[in-house]
UniProtKB/TrEMBL annotation:
<keyword id="KW-0808">Transferase</keyword>
<dbReference type="InterPro" id="IPR016181">
    <property type="entry name" value="Acyl_CoA_acyltransferase"/>
</dbReference>
<dbReference type="Pfam" id="PF00583">
    <property type="entry name" value="Acetyltransf_1"/>
</dbReference>
<protein>
    <submittedName>
        <fullName>Ribosomal protein S18 acetylase RimI-like enzyme</fullName>
    </submittedName>
</protein>
<keyword id="KW-0012">Acyltransferase</keyword>
<dbReference type="InterPro" id="IPR000182">
    <property type="entry name" value="GNAT_dom"/>
</dbReference>
<dbReference type="InterPro" id="IPR050832">
    <property type="entry name" value="Bact_Acetyltransf"/>
</dbReference>
<feature type="domain" description="N-acetyltransferase">
    <location>
        <begin position="3"/>
        <end position="156"/>
    </location>
</feature>
Amino acid sequence: MNIEIIPLDESHIPKVKNLIAGYLNSSSNGVDESDPSPEHLEQCEQILNRFINDGSSNCYLAKQDHEYIGFIILSWSFSISKGYPVLRIEALYSSSKHRKKGVGRKLMEHAIDLAISNKATRLQLETDDDNAPARTLYKQLGFKLIQGKGVYMSFL
């Protein structure tokens, strides 16, 4: 499978809003990710526009031939204790018909390459406890589950 990884820009929004809809619906509310409503697609387009204008993270798209089949969202922070950058994987998604075909691996390898080339001290992510396919991929790529680290969030 020949997969190209490219950065998201404004010209991609009409073509990738279905991917965002798929990501939002894949684990949350059981909506068929292959047939989002026009209202939901409009919301996804608005999300993408805000994302591009925000500039705090980067999105890379997986493209095969002329079809966008997945994405990864990355953000940078800094480790004071190590004195080097940290790259966080905020989201990883491949469309349902392209799962188990190397899309997620290719996107993750791109993130690993970015982290190495920018001398990051670590690459980190979070995933749900019940997401076995993702956990398997992360382990295969050398990620380790850090025991004793909890995730705390404050929803504003």
